Automatic annotation (TrEMBL), chain A:
GO terms for biological process: arginyl-tRNA aminoacylation; glycyl-tRNA aminoacylation. SUPFAM superfamilies: HD-domain/PDEase-like. It is an enzyme of class 6 (ligase). Belongs to the class-II aminoacyl-tRNA synthetase family. It comes from Sulfitobacter brevis. Its main location: cytoplasm. Its EC number is 6.1.1.14. It comes from the Bacteria. This is Glycine--tRNA ligase beta subunit. GO terms for molecular function: arginine-tRNA ligase activity; ATP binding; glycine-tRNA ligase activity. It is found in: Cytoplasm. It catalyses: tRNA(Gly) + glycine + ATP = glycyl-tRNA(Gly) + AMP + diphosphate.
From TrEMBL, chain B:
Keywords: Aminoacyl-tRNA synthetase, ATP-binding, Cytoplasm, Ligase, Nucleotide-binding, Protein biosynthesis. This is Glycine--tRNA ligase alpha subunit. The lineage of its organism: Bacteria, Pseudomonadati, Pseudomonadota, Alphaproteobacteria, Rhodobacterales. HAMAP family: Gly_tRNA_synth_alpha. GO terms for molecular function: ATP binding; glycine-tRNA ligase activity.
Length: 758, 312
């Protein structure tokens, strides 16, 4: 069976798109082939900066013949109907088969589709693939209409078997398929004819093209590590950069050069970022000092001078780049160490918009400082230190270094805070307060960092909730889900119990007062929304036209309680004031949803979380998670699972009886009315369990409470096996129902078990 | 940098080599546009001529001004006034990359010793309502040119597509000549009767303009001029196509586009004076883009823009 080789040769494909494009080429072509009946044994795709390649092994030489049976009209149907059927099937009357069926004699047609040669199918599939290729961005060129990521120059498409290779003829927008490609742009630019994949790969290699991106990456990694090792140094691993660089070269040549002495004192992160972002260089570190002393660049060719010219050029460019970085660093340090210090930057941020409805970065910082101070005692931080840390945390946004390298935000702040003589806790908070950025990112643990990180995220959540910019579907432009997950992880992973409703409320009220101060919001009194009733700041126009002066506290409280609305902002966009209670509850429920996702990843089912959310104090996420974990663990045990069944049975009987009798059985079960041993055993078991559960609940030891509860399983099962609750004796029945009520109450101490599914 | 016999020794030698090279390749060598622009792209030979179906091939030097980049001539490679070399060919020929590489060779970059790379860089000009895909071209890690296939200009699809090459001449020349500070670069031949450096020609003007751009330019005047240019551009394009005096169909695209260029430059000056806030910035850019779009709409109604209404 023949092999198929396809190569789409173009001008340089962006590195970040190559891998995906190779996969798409494979998927689109193989899907098309299989759909047309051409199966194959194996397929592999490859990419270089200038080509996408697909190699398919052992493909059918032709698609199999297909026979389709089509049911037609009755044999005695009108001629017209039969003619129509014949036309549709492309047959004549004598080719139809007449079959007796329960519905009479029916005509059947057998339509044979002959197999088609592979080349025909490949040509069709490849043309479709090229015309509909899912590039993230594509373009036209010259006078053509075809779209490709960059101009497409040639299409190699051949099938090959023992007898030899042949070109699959096709033409796309004037480009004729052939059996040739080209080697390296500079080292082997001529055309190369190939006869199959092995030949192709080998000839490319002789023409200075390593086809496989993984192989190029491996060469780069190896050569770089060896070069560094030979001088007692090590390469700073960077998988993303490695993949990118492997997509920028067809013939990787690793070159290592020095970083000028003048730049060695720059923070290593600055060196690394500058080299990676601007020059795509790897950093080479001295393991003894931890300093970055050299760089590695990957050239796309060999030269007669063994890369000397290339390396010299790269060194020069790096030197210019690092001169800039050094200039920024020194300017920034000068400001950080000056009298006003980082406060200078905070003042500059008064002119930088955070969001046009939520004020400036400086106003954000003011709010964070207040909130961090309020949160501090709850997380064991010093309020003064937390407030100071919050004021400093985002100051570096106006530093020159962060303007140049936004990804260094926070980190530069910590360098500058130390230089300004601020405490380590404050400096660390600057670096850590953005964390966690992703699900695998570490959460801050130092109290001041925790306070600032929480303040930052809570302010963000309440702010965007206040202006009704909540995430919807896949849209979350302000990364609010990430902020919510951050809040969750910081609290839970640090075992911090905080009543979030109160924190959210403080944040929301702080936001409103900040918006009023900044004249981003105005006060509207009463129910009338007409624009004439807009009034500014604390001067409130009442419905009778009187101005009433209220102080901010009053206004904020009134807004929070929904008495008056906050409305109207820049550019006439209205902010409908939402009462604090609504915002807080809505946000809490958003946090609960994110918590479900977070816990689901840890194997805790959503109904378990629902059962815990139903309990009081559900705005303390740490407590909530403890409940959920204990319940989840218990449910995994045999006793636990059965306890739920027993509980549900008790609950059902009780609920039905309460509905039927119109009373609530909640108190007064007495062992002296027990008639059977099984009943008495439940009383005894409840006494024992409750004695354990009560102290466990006080200690928030939900595992112990659940374990004690699970011990009820045996007596409850035995009770239901032996005892008929609905006794004829009214007093006995009442006593039993009250006993069930006690079971329900005891079993509901940790979570609302009625929410558990199954 | 290896020096060969014919390697250029001055800034102007590099410009002349490029002029020669692109002339040899068949481009019309145009002269700079006689107005203040932020980049060579603003020259009507690029913005307007990239529209419509008429073939085009032009190359030119364009003095460009970016008031915010002024550093009083002290920064080794930042200037508020600098030169771009611009090539525009429509439709983009299939061998444009090779033609481009030939131009590097022509200015003395030895292809055997250097590492030339095409690194993804998409181009977008919010003020011109234009975008394209292409690369920045690296020579040994140094960005030496911008290479773009225009997809849209002034909101119009480019059919056919123009290939645009932009060389930052000072930076490229500093690299070729091995100079570390732009002011040290020989402007004419170092052995000339009167050798002149870049500093001899431009150091004083950089100082003067930096002071004026940052501190002295009268923002009220600039703002008024911006608004006048904006209004004027619209008035020009509002005129009927038929010229009552000659009886000919004359759409005054270029005069209107001059006002668009002027508005754009006034905006750049206002920006350098720091009087435009972040939110206003977008609004100003939008206003210039609206002018560019009107000019593009008008240009495609002219013969140079592919209008064939009078052929029939």
């Amino acid at each position: 069976m023949p092999d198929l080789l396809i190569e789409l040769f173009s001008e340089e494909i962006p590195a970040r798109m190559q891998r995906r494009a190779a996969e798409d080429l494979k998927k689109l072509v193989t899907d098309g082939l299989v759909e047309a009946g051409l199966t194959y044994a194996a397929a592999a795709s490859f990419s270089t900066p200038r080509r996408l390649t697909l190699a398919i092994e052992d493909m059918l030489a032709a698609s199999p013949r297909q026979v389709e049976e089509r049911k037609g009209p009755r044999a005695d149907a009108p001629e017209k109907a039969i003619e129509g059927f014949l036309r549709g099937a492309g047959l004549t009357r004598d080719q139809l088969e007449e079959r007796d069926t329960p519905k009479g004699a029916i005509l059947f047609a057998k339509i044979e589709k002959p197999g088609r040669p592979a080349a025909e199918i490949v040509a069709e599939v490849l043309e479709q693939t090229i015309r509909n290729f899912p590039w993230p961005k594509s373009m036209r060129w010259g006078a053509g209409t075809l779209k490709w990521v960059r101009p497409l120059h040639s299409i190699l498409c051949i099938t090959s078997d023992e007898a030899g290779a042949s070109v699959v003829p096709l033409e796309v927008d004037g480009i004729q398929s052939g059996d040739t490609t080209r080697g390296h742009r500079f080292l082997a630019p001529d055309t190369i004819a190939v006869s199959g994949f092995e030949d192709y790969e080998a000839k490319l290699k002789r023409a200075f093209v390593v086809l496989d991106a993984e192989a190029r990456a491996e060469t780069i990694r190896n050569d770089a590590e060896n070069a560094a090792f030979a001088q007692g140094l090590e390469v700073v691993a960077d998988a993303g950069l490695l993949a990118e660089v492997a997509g920028l070269v067809e013939w990787p040549v690793v070159l290592m050069g020095p970083i000028g002495d003048a730049f060695l004192d720059l923070p290593p992160e600055v060196l690394q970022t500058s080299m990676r972002e601007h020059q795509k260089f790897f950093s080479v570190r001295n393991p003894k000092t931890g300093r970055i002393e050299k760089f590695i660049t990957v050239a796309n060719r060999t030269t007669a001078d063994e890369g000397a010219t290339i390396l010299a050029g790269n060194e020069k460019v790096l030197s210019a780049r690092l001169s800039d970085a050094k200039f920024f660093w020194e300017n920034d340090l000068r400001i950080a160490k000056s009298g006003a210090g980082m406060e200078t930057w905070v003042e500059n941020l008064r002119n930088v918009t955070f969001h046009n409805k939520l004020g400036t970065q400086a106003e954000l910082i003011d709010r964070m400082a207040v909130l961090a101070r309020e949160i501090a005692p709850m997380v064991g931080a010093d309020p003064d230190e937390a407030e100071q840390a919050a004021r400093v945390a985002k100051a570096d946004l106006s530093s020159e270094m962060v303007y140049e390298f936004p990804e260094l935000q926070g980190l530069m702040g910590s360098y500058y805070a130390r230089a300004a003589g601020l405490s380590d806790a404050v400096a660390d908070a600057a670096r850590e307060h953005y964390s966690p950025l992703g699900p695998s990112d570490d959460v801050p643990t130092a109290p001041a960092s925790v306070a600032v990180a929480l303040a930052e995220k809570i302010d963000k959540l309440t702010g965007f909730w206040a202006i009704d910019e909540k995430p919807t579907g896949s849209k979350d432009p302000f990364a609010l889900r990430r902020a919510a997950l951050g809040v969750i992880r910081i609290l839970v992973e640090n075992d911090l119990g905080i009543g979030l409703i109160s924190a959210l409320r403080q944040s929301y009220e702080g936001l409103l007062s900040s918006l009023l101060d900044a004249k981003k919001a105005y006060i509207l009194d009463g129910e009338d929304n007409d624009s004439e009733f807009w009034s500014l700041g604390s001067e409130v126009m009442m419905n009778d036209g009187q101005f009433v002066r209220r102080n901010y506290d009053e206004i904020v409280r009134a807004i929070a309680e929904g008495e008056i609305s906050l409305s109207k902002s820049l550019e006439g966009d209205n902010i409908r004031a939402i009462p604090a209670s609504t915002v807080c509850e809505d946000l809490l429920s958003f946090l609960h949803d994110r918590l479900k996702v977070y816990l689901k990843d840890q194997g805790i089912r959503h109904d378990i979380i629902d059962a815990c959310i139903a309990m009081d104090g559900n705005d303390d996420l740490t407590l909530l998670v403890k409940r959920a974990r204990a319940l989840s663990e218990t449910l995994k045990t045999d006793d636990g699972g059965n306890l739920i069944q027993g509980f549900k049975r008790a609950n059902n009987i009780l609920t039905q009886a309460e509905e039927a009798d119109g009373v609530e059985y909640s108190y007064g079960a007495d062992v002296k009315y027990a008639e059977t041993d099984e009943e008495r055993a439940v009383f005894a078991a409840l006494d024992t369990a409750e004695a354990k559960i009560k102290p466990a609940m006080q200690a928030q030891d939900f595992s112990a409470a659940m374990t004690a509860m699970a011990e009820l399983r045996g007596p409850i099962d035995a009770f239901f096996d032996a005892v008929q609750v609905n006794s004829d004796n009214g007093m006995v029945r009442r006593n039993r129902l009250n006993l069930l009520s006690r079971i329900r109450q005891t079993c509901s101490s940790v979570a609302d078990l009625t929410k558990i599914e199954g | 940098m290896k020096k060969n016999q014919n390697a250029p020794r001055s800034f102007q030698a590099i410009i002349l080599a490029l002029q020669n090279y692109w002339a040899t390749q068949g481009c019309a060598i145009l002269q700079p546009y006689d107005m203040e622009v932020g980049a060579g792209t603003f020259h009507p030979a690029t913005t307007l001529r990239s529209l419509g179906a008429q073939p085009w091939a032009a190359a030119y030097v364009q003095p460009s001004r970016r008031p915010t980049d002024g550093r009083y001539g002290e920064n080794p490679n930042r200037l508020q006034h600098y030169y771009q070399y611009q090539v525009l060919i429509k439709p983009s020929p299939p061998n444009l990359q090779d033609l481009y590489l030939g131009s590097l060779d022509a200015i003395g970059i030895d292809m055997e010793l250097h590492d030339i790379r095409f690194v993804e860089d998409d181009w977008e000009s919010p003020t011109l309502g234009a975008w394209g895909l292409g690369w920045e071209v690296w020579c040994d890690g140094m960005e030496v040119s911008q290479f773009t296939y225009f997809q849209q200009v002034g909101g119009h699809d480019c059919t056919p597509v123009s290939g645009e090459l932009t060389y930052g001449l000072e930076r490229l020349a500093m690299y070729v000549l091995g100079v570390d500070h732009v002011m040290d670069m020989p402007f004419n031949d170092p052995d000339a009767m009167i050798p002149l450096t870049y500093a001899d020609v431009f150091k004083q003007t950089e100082e003067e303009y930096a002071r004026w751009n940052f501190d002295t330019a009268n923002t009220d005047v600039l703002l008024r001029q911006f608004e006048e240019a904006e209004a004027h551009c619209k008035v020009i394009l509002d005129q009927p196509a038929m010229d009552p005096k000659t009886g000919k169909r004359i759409i005054m695209v270029h005069p209107a586009y001059d006002q668009c260029i002027k508005a754009s430059h006034m905006f750049n000056l206002l920006d350098a004076r720091g009087v435009i806030s972040v939110t206003e910035r977008q609004a100003y850019i939008g206003r210039v883009r609206a002018l560019a779009k009107m000019c593009a709409d008008a240009f495609v109604q002219t013969r140079a823009g592919g209008w064939q209404g009078d052929a029939a």
